[in-house]
């Protein structure tokens, strides 16, 4: 009775329990039994019920929720599921009750539920349900799909719709679960639902297709669960039958045997029907939708097939179903590939299923390995996790090459990828159980602990990876899975300190260095509690438990290494690399433990070792590490401060005394420089410089000695370069420490004056060393000069530090020129020319990269001076002109400098840009001659650079209006600055520059184009207008570029003003004729030129009309002009203009100019008329000036016609007016994208036969 008990238990949770007896035998009076060959009807035909008369009330009785007094609740089934407030089981139970009373009405509710869940506002009526096929109903609903946007419930944003998908899926699952004992076998409900969902999944409308596919897949999942339960019940029934049959005849119950046989038969019939339903869904929906054009639909299919294979592996976990997952791993969308991997993870996690996956693994293993490098990081993470499960299932599946492809990902910058790879590495190399290990071995510590072998394995892996500078990333990758191993510092210290055991292999020098580096990285990550640089977006907020763990670990580190560190330093005292890493350990100590733990003697031992290392080493890294260690220990918050401070002072006293005595002997005038003495001076100077970086040594007065050393080096010129470099650096530190002291406000005025003298004297020394023959010395002097000029610039007084104003230092023109010359000589050079700064290893790629990095730093230091207005902005012209030539090396720096300069001063930046182009143009004339060919590569390069410069001005022409106009004015002045020596009939020397200048014409406003055209006419003669030779083409093209913008197509202002109006308003615009501006508007367009005249005095300054525009009243401007005309104010240094004394002159000049304009207009009219007559005789069409407006009018009229066509038509976002598909061939013709694998998969999937 085991089976009967199971069915009875499940019956308590079912709404159709009245169809079941106490033995679990299933009855269904309304059901007609089907045979095993019976197929589910999905052709669109629906069975007709005798309850059709009641279906007319279906739209009023929504979901079976009845109230007292016979009233019907007006809430649709869709609304109940959307709100998600009611328990889903009660909702389903109510629907089942309504189905028992009137199944047509209940099914109509269910059909409308699916339609509404798709976002369709149409309703299936009872009449449609009785007389129309599914395909006709879907077509009707498609026609009524009048959504305003492409969103539908499954994709709608907002909290209301977030839980809709889960509620929708839960409803389907509960519906099948509650109906699993009778209703799903009545050959009506399931046939209707499956037929509807199959038809909707074939719709052209995405919302129908997506919603119905999700519903069908969840329905399939629920049926798989039912099939699994039936299979279990059949096995139980069969076992009970065999048990009963094997009894002796006397004890055998024949009635029970007959009952079990009948029950097994009915279960078999039910299982056959469930299989028919599942086949109908799989073949009608899944097989076509797993290749749908929409990635979300494909993802739904793959996700659910993974559930089926995991839930009912006996039926679905075979190659016929696995191949769909394998093929879809090549999908173009990361979302779908991710679903494939997560589906496979659920299968490989169960080791009992792995034998069934052998063929699939061999076929698609390479694809999974390649997905570890997927461009979607989450896909790569899941691919690595899948390979980890494969590795756990079988060690021999993945080859060493496959594993190595995953190993190197522990150094990935993306932390989730690195952590997943670290777990894979740990499972492969560190989880191998040692057969010799037992309980006694676990208790052993140090070198004999089980971790000793694993730590050696980690060291070997680190060295074999050949990425020795990335130990911190390796440690971080394994931090989550191997924390106990990485925190076994006692074992690490034992491996370094203790002698190897008998037969144990000794660590080599490289292995010891690697172990020390790994140990340092583990300690740093333990104390800092955050990943290394580049692997985290922000600092993690620690929980209380994590903070306690951090403090405990820090205490353990201090207790462990406070005694061991002096011994390690003594052992490796002569090894610079090992000592540098070991000296960083005290930075992570809890220094209070030295006092509370009575460890002062170990502190004294550490200080002795530090002093010993300083005396032995001259390597900069070692000395800086010692300096940082002293700085960390010299913390006045701890009681050990006095002890450490005394030791530090004694060390500095010895170094300074030694340096002073040796310097006196070294600088004797009568003796030549001795190499041994020079080495002693250099080594001592290196130690002092390293300590001065982190410690205030002002009381030792190092400025005098270093200044004397540097000055003698300039006078004699034979000072060793390393001594000069470190003397410059040490003196720089002296200046900065003095500034820090003065900034605190506790110093006297004499101290401030002394610092000012020292700083200026030092800057003069650095300026002299810019001319040194040694490149390294010049680079050091340049870097220090840039730093000092930046620190002591005008910004030093900001933040309420006006007392420091005497320290402000502004570089003179000579110093600026020398700094610029250094940049041009040492930065903008070819890679092969830079042979001095790489110590002769130019062929080494690493040396080339290092040299480029150094040059970038030099350029950035100088550009910073430009950006912060420390040096004149016009010096940037020599930098900007290199933008194209050195774009790969310095393009980002130069572009950022342009952006910052434009933010600081738009007009001056524009002048600098045009100056750089003028310099390049002059260089072309010097190289190619005055009459060079404008098709030459050099000229094309300058023009391309101008085009790039133009793009940097952006799209907002109002913001850059005055800057661009000034740029054009300077360009025009330059083009006509030098007249031709042959006379006025010949072009100016720089006339070709107008061709370059025309690249900026598109950035001009319409008004400014006319003003510039007037300004250009001042330089033109009547003969120039008539010339048409090639040498005059730059003038013609530039002139035309100013004329073509006379319409609205080139003006941002018109674009902005027209956006508010409709297309219909544009139709009313006249087809011909140009819009005239008021006189006041035209005159105000020239205000930027007048302002420039007030600042400078160019040759063409005398222009009464342009000068008078300064005096125009602002109230006559258009509103959009007022917004930008008020931005550009007069500079503070501009002299005041006496209005009363100049008004009479201005009025007279204006009257003269108006007379000249009338005369010029009459002459132009005569010329224009004659030219038009000549053009007509030659058969030419329209004049050049009229071409652009005609194009504009055509465009406008076209837009108007389009609007007329659109009028009265309500277009939807999806093309829905398509005939319904009759068969698969028609559907392929209508929407080939849905079924073309090339649209969703890589080429490697197509035509691949899996088995």
Automatic annotation (TrEMBL):
Residues 1054-1063 have a biased composition (Low complexity). The keyword Nucleus applies. Residues 227-280 form a coiled coil. GO terms for molecular function: chromatin binding. GO terms for cellular component: chromatin; chromosome, centromeric region; cohesin complex; nucleus. Pfam families: HEAT_SCC3-SA, SCD, STAG. Residues 286-371 form the SCD domain. Keywords: Cell cycle, Cell division, Chromosome, Chromosome partition, Coiled coil, Nucleus. GO terms for biological process: cell division; chromosome segregation; sister chromatid cohesion. Residues 37-60, 1054-1090 are annotated as: Disordered. It is found in: Nucleus; Chromosome; Chromosome, Centromere. Residues 1064-1075 have a biased composition (Basic residues). Part of the cohesin complex which is composed of a heterodimer between a SMC1 protein (SMC1A or SMC1B) and SMC3, which are attached via their hinge domain, and RAD21 which link them at their heads, and one STAG protein. Belongs to the SCC3 family. Component of cohesin complex, a complex required for the cohesion of sister chromatids after DNA replication. The cohesin complex apparently forms a large proteinaceous ring within which sister chromatids can be trapped. At anaphase, the complex is cleaved and dissociates from chromatin, allowing sister chromatids to segregate. PANTHER family: COHESIN SUBUNIT SA-2, STROMAL ANTIGEN. This is Cohesin subunit SA. It comes from Scyliorhinus torazame.
């Amino acid at each position: 009775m085991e089976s009967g008990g199971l069915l009875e238990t499940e019956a308590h949770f079912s709404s159709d329990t009245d169809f079941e007896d106490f033995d679990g035998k299933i009855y269904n009076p309304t059901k007609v039994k089907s045979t095993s060959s019976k197929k589910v009807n999905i052709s669109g035909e629906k069975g007709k019920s005798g309850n059709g008369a009641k279906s007319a009330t279906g739209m009023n009785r929504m979901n079976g929720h009845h109230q007292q007094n016979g009233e019907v609740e007006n809430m649709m089934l869709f609304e109940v599921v959307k709100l998600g407030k009611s328990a889903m089981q009660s909702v389903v139970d109510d629907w089942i009750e309504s189905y028992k009373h009137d199944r047509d009405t209940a099914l109509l509710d269910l059909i409308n539920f699916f339609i509404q869940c798709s976002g369709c506002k149409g309703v299936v009526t009872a009449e449609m349900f009785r007389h129309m096929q599914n395909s006709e109903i879907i077509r009707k609903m498609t026609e009524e799909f009048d959504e305003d946007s492409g969103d539908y419930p499954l994709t709608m944003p907002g909290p209301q719709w977030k839980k809709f998908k889960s509620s929708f899926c839960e409803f389907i699952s509960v519906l099948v679960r509650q109906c699993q004992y009778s209703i799903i076998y009545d050959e009506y409900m399931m046939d209707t639902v499956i037929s509807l969902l199959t038809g909707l999944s074939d719709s052209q409308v995405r919302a129908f297709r997506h919603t119905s596919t999700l519903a069908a897949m969840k329905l399939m999942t629920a049926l798989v669960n039912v099939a699994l339960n039936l299979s279990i019940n059949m096995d139980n029934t069969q076992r009970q039958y065999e048990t009963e049959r094997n009894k002796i005849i006397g004890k055998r119950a024949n009635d029970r045997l007959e009952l079990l046989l009948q029950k097994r038969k009915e279960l078999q019939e039910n299982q056959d029907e469930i299989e028919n339903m599942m086949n109908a869904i799989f073949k009608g929906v899944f097989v076509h939708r797993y290749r749908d054009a929409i990635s979300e639909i494909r993802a739904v299919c793959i996700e659910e097939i993974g559930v089926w294979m995991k839930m009912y592996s006996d039926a679905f976990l075979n190659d016929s179903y696995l191949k769909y997952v394998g093929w879809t791993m090549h999908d173009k969308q990361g979302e779908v590939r991710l679903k494939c991997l997560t589906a496979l993870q659920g299968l490989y996690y169960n080791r009992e299923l792995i034998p069934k996956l052998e063929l699939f693994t061999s076929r698609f293993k390479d694809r999974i390995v390649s997905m570890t490098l997927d461009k979607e990081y989450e896909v790569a993470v899941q691919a690595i996790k899948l390979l980890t499960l494969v590795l756990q299932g079988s060690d021999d599946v993945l080859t060493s090459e496959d594993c190595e492809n995953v190993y190197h990902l522990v150094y990935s910058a993306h932390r989730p990828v690195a952590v997943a790879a670290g777990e894979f590495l740990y499972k492969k190399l560190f989880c191998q159980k040692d057969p010799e290990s037992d309980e006694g071995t676990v208790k052993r510590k140090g070198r004999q602990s089980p971790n000793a072998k694993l730590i050696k394995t980690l060291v070997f892996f680190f060295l074999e990876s050949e990425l020795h500078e990335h130990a911190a990333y390796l440690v971080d990758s394994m931090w989550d899975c191997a924390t106990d191993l990485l925190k076994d510092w006692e074992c690490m210290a034992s491996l370094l300190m203790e002698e190897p055991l008998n037969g144990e292999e000794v660590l080599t020098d490289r292995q010891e260095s690697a172990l020390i580096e790994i140990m340092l990285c583990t300690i740093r990550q333990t104390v800092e509690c955050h990943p290394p640089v580049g692997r985290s977006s922000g600092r993690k907020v620690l929980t209380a438990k994590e903070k306690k763990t951090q403090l405990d670990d820090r205490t353990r580190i201090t207790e462990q290494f406070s005694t061991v560190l002096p011994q390690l330093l003594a052992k490796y005292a002569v090894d610079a690399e090992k000592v540098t890493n070991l000296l960083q350990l005290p930075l992570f100590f809890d220094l209070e433990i030295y006092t509370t733990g009575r460890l002062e003697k170990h502190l004294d031992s550490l200080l002795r070792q530090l002093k010993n290392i300083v005396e032995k080493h001259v390597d900069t890294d070692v000395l800086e590490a010692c300096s940082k260690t002293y700085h960390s220990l010299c913390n006045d918050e701890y009681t050990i401060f006095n002890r450490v401070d005394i030791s530090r002072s004694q060390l500095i006293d010895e170094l300074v005394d030694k340096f002073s005595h040796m310097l006196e002997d070294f600088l004797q005038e009568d003796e030549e420089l001795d190499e041994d003495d020079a080495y002693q001076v250099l080594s001592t100077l290196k130690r002092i410089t390293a300590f001065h970086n982190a410690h205030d040594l002002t009381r030792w007065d190092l400025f005098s000695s270093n200044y004397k050393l540097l000055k003698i080096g300039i006078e004699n010129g034979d000072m060793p370069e390393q001594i000069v470099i470190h003397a410059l650096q040490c003196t720089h530190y002296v200046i900065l420490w003095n500034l820090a002291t003065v900034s605190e406000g506790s110093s006297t005025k004499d101290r401030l004056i002394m610092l000012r003298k020292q700083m200026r004297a030092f800057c003069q020394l650095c300026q002299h060393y810019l001319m040194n023959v040694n490149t390294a010395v010049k680079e050091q002097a340049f870097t220090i000069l840039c730093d000092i000029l930046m620190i002591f610039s005008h910004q030093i007084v900001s933040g309420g530090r006006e007392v420091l104003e005497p320290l402000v230092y502004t570089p003179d023109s000579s110093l600026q020129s020398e700094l610029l010359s250094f940049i041009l000589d040492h930065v903008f050079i070819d890679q092969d020319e830079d042979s001095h700064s790489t110590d002769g290893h130019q062929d080494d790629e690493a040396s080339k990269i290092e040299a480029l990095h150094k040059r970038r730093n030099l350029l950035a230091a100088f550009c910073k001076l430009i950006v912060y207005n420390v040096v004149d902005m016009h010096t940037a012209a020599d930098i900007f002109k290199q933008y194209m030539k050195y774009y790969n090396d310095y393009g980002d720096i130069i572009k950022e400098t342009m952006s910052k300069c434009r933010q600081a001063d738009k007009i001056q930046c524009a002048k600098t840009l045009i100056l750089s182009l003028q310099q390049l143009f002059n260089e072309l004339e010097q190289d190619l001659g005055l009459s060079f060919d404008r098709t030459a590569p050099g000229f094309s390069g300058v023009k391309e650079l101008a085009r790039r410069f133009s793009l940097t001005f952006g799209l907002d022409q109002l913001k850059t209006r005055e800057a661009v106009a000034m740029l054009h004015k300077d360009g025009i002045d330059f083009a006509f600055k030098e007249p031709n020596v042959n006379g006025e009939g010949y072009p100016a020397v720089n006339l070709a520059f107008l061709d370059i200048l025309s690249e900026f014409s598109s950035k001009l406003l319409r008004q400014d184009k006319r003003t510039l055209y007037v300004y250009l006419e001042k330089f033109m003669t009547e003969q120039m207008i008539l010339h048409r030779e090639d040498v005059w083409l730059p003038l013609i093209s530039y002139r035309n570029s100013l004329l073509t913008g006379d319409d609205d197509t080139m003006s941002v202002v018109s674009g902005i003003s027209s956006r508010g109006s409709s297309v219909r308003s544009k139709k009313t615009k006249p087809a011909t004729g140009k819009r005239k501006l008021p006189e006041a508007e035209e005159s105000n367009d020239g205000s930027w030129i007048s302002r420039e005249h007030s600042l400078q005095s160019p040759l063409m300054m005398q222009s009464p009309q342009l000068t008078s525009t300064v005096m125009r009243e602002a109230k006559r401007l258009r509103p959009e002009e007022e917004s930008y005309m008020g931005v550009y104010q007069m500079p503070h240094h501009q002299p005041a203009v006496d209005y009363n004394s100049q008004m009479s002159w201005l009025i007279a000049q204006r009257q003269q100019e108006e007379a000249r304009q009338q005369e010029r207009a009459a002459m132009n009219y005569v010329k224009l008329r004659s030219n038009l007559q000549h053009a007509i005789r030659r058969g030419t069409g329209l004049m050049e000036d009229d071409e652009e407006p005609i194009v504009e009018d055509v465009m406008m009229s076209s837009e108007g016609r389009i609007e007329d066509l659109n009028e009265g038509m309500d277009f939807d976002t999806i093309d829905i007016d398509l005939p319904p598909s009759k068969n698969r061939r028609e559907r392929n013709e209508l929407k080939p994208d849905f079924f073309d694998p090339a649209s969703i998969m890589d080429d490697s999937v197509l035509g691949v036969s899996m088995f």
